[in-house]
């Protein structure tokens, strides 16, 4: 076999690394695929150009001599193989000659010369009459196919019209070449059907190979597979060239599934294509499917494939890439025993494999022994050694090989530069890194890509603060004039809290683009916000040269100031925006509303919402709708809540679980119970899960409406989902108490205890209120006793119930004891306590004491309300103090109560 020349890079390549103006080096498999492609020759109907050193050519020559039934003479075959020897094809158009001649030698009896011009084809002028023989027509068609696609197809149509295509496979092959070049695949498929139909041609592998070759040249993977499948469907058996072209096509695009299909078909036909085995192994290795690659290696032995140099190198590469170096060395030894002298490519593969396995002692040993086997290290050898020592984190050794590489006139690839800059970020000073940056620039690396690599390396090393010391001279000048590089550097500085350096770059930049600058400042400020560096965001904002109002920047700063609790500064920014000519959008209003909510200024938040409603073009999103619901609920604005609810229904916003929960919780007092019930049922039917608060709200709604069947169903559903809490039981117990259903109330209390909840103060208060109002004073006292036994402290509500019940009974002494206990507890009377006491004193006839209580309230800072005055007036009337009652009534009117 002819010797093969390899120029293979065995370095790894990282797609995330910087880019060169020229193509970067690829990993060993890619490089190997480029070095030894399946080159295909142009044989009769199969348009292939194969260098004589390619092993596929040998297969094609052999198969052609056996299978080809030529339409050409021996002269034509000689012409074909002359092309294999590197003879260039004749140009399609010769600009220096308008007239050309094609000599067709059909033997001693007749010779004709057919002339054709580069202009229109004139059949009559060329003597192309219907009596022209098929052989002459084919010769003319062949010559036209080399010069003009359009003329070829016109003459082909003439042949069809004059009956020259019956059984003429060669003519069809020439036409298919043209259609393949044009990419007219539908016409090609129609032509194949015509061949096997009207033209009565025997369609064999040569017809399909013509189209597969066109797909191979143009990189059409799916179409190549289509022709193979069509070939198989029509019962046409492929040959070795078919699979050689297809597997080479699949290897280019790393198409695993298509390659597997073609490979399995090749083996099923018993065809041995050496390059197909290599392609399949290479694809699997490139995709890290090492187990499958080894299966193909087993197939080589099973199919008794005679290995060529390409096969041996592919096997060596497959084992080296997955770190099976012992197997790789055995392959190298077998390669030598088979008569193939290992070249530098083979040893480079081993060095790469040992480097990936972090066994640099073995890699070093191979490197030192290269001369002993008559080989000299090449560019790829040094590159692989640099990568290996880089993985081993040995900067000293990597640096030595890097300098040797450059000293021998070789160039480092992108991976070498990437490795060196990462090692220097960890172990070297800034001068070494600066020299590597110079090498990158000399090799044509893009500045922005180099800058990104530098920042990534020093970020990983935790030494990003050293970058300002490296970026000097022309490189820094480029950063200042290039918007992209400037943005990359500033963002990196901000990320690592080098705010002063970032501000310096922004102040020294040479480019002027106000829109881009504002966007960059906004991006920087947002980055500080996301990283939690809020003070840095404020510092950068205060250093902005252009303080012209910018909606996005100012809204972000309002949000930041709100988070810092600096509400006055946030409000000033809002007022500045409001006074400018900038119209606020929905997001801006959302930020301002939340700012006022955080500051506790719900009134101002409502004012902002009113301003927003005045702009008819503002459509709130689901988040702003929820904020509005919460604000109106906290402000007790039931009418606003009701209107907002129906506005949300009309808005077409998509409801989620949180929206249902928010609407039900906020609108429970604003909407009718039927509407709330419909919403709750709709929420469940859509598969959304209510939260505990929503369940409790619905319990309260149904309880107050005395819809206890629905309330019990809600409680059961909440318990089933594990969302019941003490408030759930308190709510339904209170509802039973309000409806005076003591039996169900007690039953629910027992259920509450059974499910692991202790009786809460709220439950005790409900029991006290219910027993007291029903006059069951003995049960009332038992509840008080149980409270004391359980060490449950009373609250204002407990004391107020006791005052009310004792006062209703006229037990003024017990009322006095409760009042004393209330004061001693440290709670002191509240507004409700005073109102209840006034009512109790009125029932007991202690009118003067009731009046004194009003004075005491004011002294304690409690402002009397309408109930206070109503209870006092009723007390005066009951005790015939009508004049005093009238005076207090007038006072009440003057107070606007």
Question: Top keywords for this entry?
Answer:
48 helices, 897 residues, elongated, disordered N terminus, mainly alpha, two-stranded antiparallel ribbon
Please sum up the structure shown:
The chain is mainly alpha-helical and 897 residues long.
Report on the structure:
The chain is an all-alpha fold. It contains 48 helices and four strands. The protein has a two-stranded antiparallel sheet. A two-stranded antiparallel ribbon has the order 3-4. Helix 29 runs parallel beside helix 31. It is elongated and about 140 Å long. The protein starts with 27 loop residues before the first helix and ends with a helix. 41% of the residues are buried. The N terminus is likely disordered.
Count, helices: 48
CA radius of gyration is: 46 Å
Number of strands: 4
Judged by helices, strands and strand pairing, the structural class is mainly alpha
- Calculate the mean pLDDT score and round it: 84
Q: How are the SSEs placed, and which strands pair?
A:
Layout: H1 28-35, E1 41-43, E2 46-48, H2 55-67, H3 74-84, E3 99-105, E4 111-117, H4 134-147, H5 149-161, H6 169-182, H7 185-196, H8 205-218, H9 221-233, H10 240-253, H11 256-268, H12 274-286, H13 290-302, H14 309-321, H15 325-337, H16 344-356, H17 360-368, H18 379-391, H19 395-407, H20 414-427, H21 430-442, H22 447-460, H23 467-470, H24 473-481, H25 483-495, H26 499-508, H27 514-531, H28 534-542, H29 551-564, H30 567-579, H31 586-599, H32 602-614, H33 622-634, H34 638-651, H35 657-666, H36 673-685, H37 692-704, H38 708-720, H39 726-738, H40 742-754, H41 761-773, H42 777-789, H43 796-809, H44 812-824, H45 831-844, H46 847-859, H47 866-878, H48 882-894
Antiparallel strand pairs: 1-2, 3-4
Helix pairs in contact: 4-5, 4-6, 5-6, 6-7, 6-8, 8-9, 8-10, 9-10, 10-11, 10-12, 11-12, 12-13, 12-14, 14-15, 14-16, 15-16, 16-17, 16-18, 17-18, 18-19, 18-20, 19-20, 20-21, 20-22, 22-25, 24-25, 25-26, 25-27, 27-28, 27-29, 28-29, 29-30, 29-31, 30-31, 31-32, 31-33, 32-33, 33-34, 33-35, 35-37, ...
């Amino acid at each position: 076999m002819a010797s093969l020349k390899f120029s293979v890079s065995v370095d790894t390549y990282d797609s995330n690394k910087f880019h060169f103006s020229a193509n970067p080096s690829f990993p060993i498999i890619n490089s190997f695929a480029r070095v030894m492609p399946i080159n295909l020759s142009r044989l009769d109907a199969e348009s292939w150009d194969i260098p004589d050193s390619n092993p596929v050519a040998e297969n094609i020559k052999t198969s052609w001599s056996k299978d080809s039934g030529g339409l050409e003479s021996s002269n034509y075959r000689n012409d074909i193989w002359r092309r294999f020897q590197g003879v260039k094809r004749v140009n399609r158009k010769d600009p220096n000659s308008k007239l050309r001649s094609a000599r067709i030698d059909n033997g001693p009896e007749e010779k004709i010369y057919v002339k054709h011009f580069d202009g229109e084809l004139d059949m009559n002028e060329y003597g192309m009459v219907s009596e022209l023989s098929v052989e002459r027509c084919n010769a003319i068609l062949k010559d036209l196919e080399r010069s003009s696609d359009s003329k070829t197809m016109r003459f082909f149509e003439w042949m069809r019209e004059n009956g020259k295509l019956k059984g003429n496979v060669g003519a069809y092959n020439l036409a298919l070449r043209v259609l393949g070049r044009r990419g007219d695949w539908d016409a090609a498929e129609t032509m194949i059907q015509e061949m096997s139909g009207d033209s009565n041609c025997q369609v064999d592998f040569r017809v399909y190979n013509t189209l597969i070759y066109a797909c191979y040249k143009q990189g059409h993977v799916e179409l190549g597979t289509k022709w193979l499948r069509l070939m198989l469907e029509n019962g046409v058996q492929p040959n070795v060239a078919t699979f050689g072209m297809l597997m080479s096509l699949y290897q280019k695009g790393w198409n695993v599934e298509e390659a597997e299909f073609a490979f399995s078909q090749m083996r099923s036909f018993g065809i041995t294509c050496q390059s197909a085995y290599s392609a399949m192994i290479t694809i699997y290795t490139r995709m890290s499917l090492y187990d499958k690659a080894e299966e193909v290696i087993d197939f080589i032995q099973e199919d008794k494939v005679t290995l060529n140099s390409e096969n041996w190198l592919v096997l060596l590469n497959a084992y080296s890439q997955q770190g099976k170096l012992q197997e790789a060395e055995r392959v190298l030894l077998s390669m030598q025993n088979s008569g193939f002298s290992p070249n530098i490519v083979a040893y480079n593969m081993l060095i790469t494999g040992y480097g990936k396995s972090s066994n640099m002692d073995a890699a070093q040993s191979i490197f030192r022994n290269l001369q002993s086997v008559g080989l000299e290290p090449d560019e790829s050898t040094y590159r692989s050694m640099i990568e290996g020592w880089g993985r081993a984190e040995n900067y000293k050794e990597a640096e030595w090989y890097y300098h040797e590489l450059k000293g021998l006139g070789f160039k480092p690839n992108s991976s070498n530069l990437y490795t060196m800059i990462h090692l220097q970020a960890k172990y070297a000073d800034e001068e070494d890194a600066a020299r590597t940056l110079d090498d990158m620039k000399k090799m044509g690396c893009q500045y922005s890509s180099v800058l990104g690599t530098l920042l990534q390396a020093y970020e990983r090393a935790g030494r990003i603060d050293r970058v300002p010391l490296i970026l000097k001279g022309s490189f820094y000048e480029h950063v200042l004039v290039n918007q992209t590089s400037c943005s990359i550097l500033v963002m990196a500085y901000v990320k690592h809290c080098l705010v002063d350096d970032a501000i310096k770059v922004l102040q020294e930049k040479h480019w002027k683009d106000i829109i881009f600058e504002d966007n960059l400042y906004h991006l920087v400020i947002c980055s500080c916000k996301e990283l939690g560096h809020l003070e840095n965001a404020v510092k950068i904002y205060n250093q902005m040269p252009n303080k012209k109002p910018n909606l996005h920047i100012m809204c972000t700063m309002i949000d930041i100031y709100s988070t810092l609790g600096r509400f006055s500064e946030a409000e000033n920014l809002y007022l500045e925006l409001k006074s400018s000519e900038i119209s606020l959008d929905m997001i801006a209003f959302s930020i301002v509303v939340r700012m006022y909510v955080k500051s506790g200024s719900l009134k101002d938040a409502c004012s902002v919402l009113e301003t927003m409603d005045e702009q008819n073009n503002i459509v709130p999103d689901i988040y702003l709708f929820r904020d509005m619901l919460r604000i109106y609920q906290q402000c007790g604005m039931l009418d606003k809540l009701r209107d907002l609810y129906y506005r949300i229904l009309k808005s077409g916003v998509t409801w989620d679980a949180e929206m249902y929960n928010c609407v039900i919780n906020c609108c429970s007092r604003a909407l009718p119970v039927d509407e709330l019930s419909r919403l709750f049922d709709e929420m469940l039917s859509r598969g959304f899960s209510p939260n505990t608060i929503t369940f409790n709200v619905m319990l309260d709604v149904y309880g107050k409406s005395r819809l206890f069947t629905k309330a019990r169903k809600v409680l059961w559903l909440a318990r089933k989902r594990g969302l019941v809490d003490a408030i759930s039981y308190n709510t339904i117990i209170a509802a039973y108490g309000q409806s005076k259903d003591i039996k169900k109330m007690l039953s629910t209390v027992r259920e509450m205890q059974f499910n692991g909840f202790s009786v809460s103060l709220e439950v005790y208060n409900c029991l006290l209120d219910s027993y007291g109002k029903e006059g069951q004073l003995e049960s009332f006292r038992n509840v008080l006793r149980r409270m004391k036994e359980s060490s449950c402290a009373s609250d204002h509500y407990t004391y107020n119930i006791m005052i009310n019940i004792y006062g209703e009974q006229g037990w003024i002494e017990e009322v006095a004891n409760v009042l004393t206990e209330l004061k001693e507890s440290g709670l002191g009377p509240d507004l409700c306590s005073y109102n209840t006491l006034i009512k109790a004193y009125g029932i007991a006839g202690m009118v003067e004491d009731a009046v004194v209580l009003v004075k005491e309230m004011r002294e304690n800072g409690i402002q009397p309300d309408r109930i206070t005055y109503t209870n006092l007036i009723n007390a005066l009337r009951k005790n015939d103090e009508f004049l005093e009652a009238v005076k207090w009534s007038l006072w009440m009117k003057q107070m606007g109560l």
